[in-house]
Write a structure and sequence with these properties.
Largest sheet: 2 strands, parallel
Strand content: under 5%
Radius of gyration: 19 Å
Subcellular location: Cell membrane
Distance between the termini: 18 Å
Family: Belongs to the cytochrome b561 family.
Cofactor: heme b
CATH topology: Fumarate Reductase Cytochrome B subunit
Membrane topology: Multi-pass membrane protein
Protein name: Cytochrome b561
Length: about 200
């Protein structure tokens, strides 16, 4: 379950990260992986739920929670990417062919990209629709765009479309992990399970 191609982080930082000598992921990497996973799935489900709610104070409150949760996920994604740059994951299993490795790297790179672009598109949409994002209900964040209904509607479509792409990628990610565990019988899934994460 390598996250990004080997040359990606080198290009960002100019420093070659150290490849882990162990087959396990670090405890911090495991914790961030599962925290992000549950947060993204939960926020996606909550977004589906609130979308069809009738206009009411509860719907407005739900949208507010959804927005600050999205901003929080954006912050977690920044932390996770920073960790990833300086802490390379274990090598992929040697039995994986070039095509399979390319798919794995590409899929993980797209997941990272969406972890940033989806919250950003939601923030832009909220700004264009004239609704300020207030983090945790107490810290107003600056609007990124001036109010513009047409642009807001377009960004809403973009935000929804990106979420659908994310759902497909997550489903593929889960399917690949299960394939590694039950078909290939390697340790790709096992080494990311919380009970097997080790500090380093």
């Amino acid at each position: 379950m390598d996250i990004l191609p080997a040359n990606f982080t080198t290009g960002l930082s100019g420093v070659q990260p150290t490849r882990s000598a162990t087959r396990q992921y670090a405890t911090a990497a495991v914790a961030m992986h599962w925290l992000m996973a549950f947060a993204i799935v939960g926020l996606f489900a909550f977004g589906l739920y609130m979308h069809d709610l009738p206009l009411s104070p509860w719907k407005l409150r739900a949208y507010s929670w959804h927005k600050w949760a999205g901003v929080s996920i954006f912050g977690l994604a920044v932390v996770r990417l920073a960790w990833r740059i300086y802490n390379r994951p274990p090598e992929l299993p040697p039995h994986m062919g070039r095509a399979e490795r390319f798919i794995a790297h590409s899929g993980h790179s797209l997941l990272y990209l969406l972890m940033f672009t989806i919250p950003l598109s939601g923030w832009l949409m909220s700004s264009a629709k004239g609704f300020q994002t207030v983090l945790f209900g107490v810290l107003p964040l600056p609007d990124l765009l001036s109010k513009n209904k047409e642009l807001g509607d377009m960004l809403q479509t973009v935000h929804w479309s990106l979420n659908l792409v994310l759902a497909i990628l997550v489903a593929g990610h889960v399917a690949a992990a299960l394939k590694h565990h039950f078909v290939d019988r390697d340790d790709v899934l096992a080494r990311m399970l919380p009970r097997l994460g080790k500090s380093r």
